[in-house]
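Dear support,

I submitted the protein below through the web form. The confirmation email said the job was done, but the results page showed an empty box. After a refresh the structure appeared. I'm attaching both so you can tell me whether what I see now is the final result or a partial one.
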Amino acid sequence: MIEDGQQWLMLVRALASLALVIGSIFAIAWIAKKYWRPEKWGMNLSGLKIRHQLAFDSKRKLVVIELEGREFLVGMGSDSITSLLDLGEREGARNESSEVRYVERA
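What the results page shows now:
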């Protein structure tokens, strides 16, 4: 039979191991949140802005995005994103000759 001192030692070791595992999970999550960002990987998304959104339900919506001064109408579903229209330059920068162009699909 195991002595009381050994039982306490086993319990302390088990709790210390559990605390180490949980602490490691939180440390990895903190590091991932702080350092693993898309802009750190060379994908600069600072020029991408969401201008307007219209949700049809919880899975589908229309979104007007601005990318590098141009606006696009995008349809978003639960498993896809589809470019619908190229709206041209942003409203403030549009002139009278601007027109809406349809994006060709493959």
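Response: this is the final, complete result; the empty box was a page-load delay. DSSP finds one helix and five strands in the chain.
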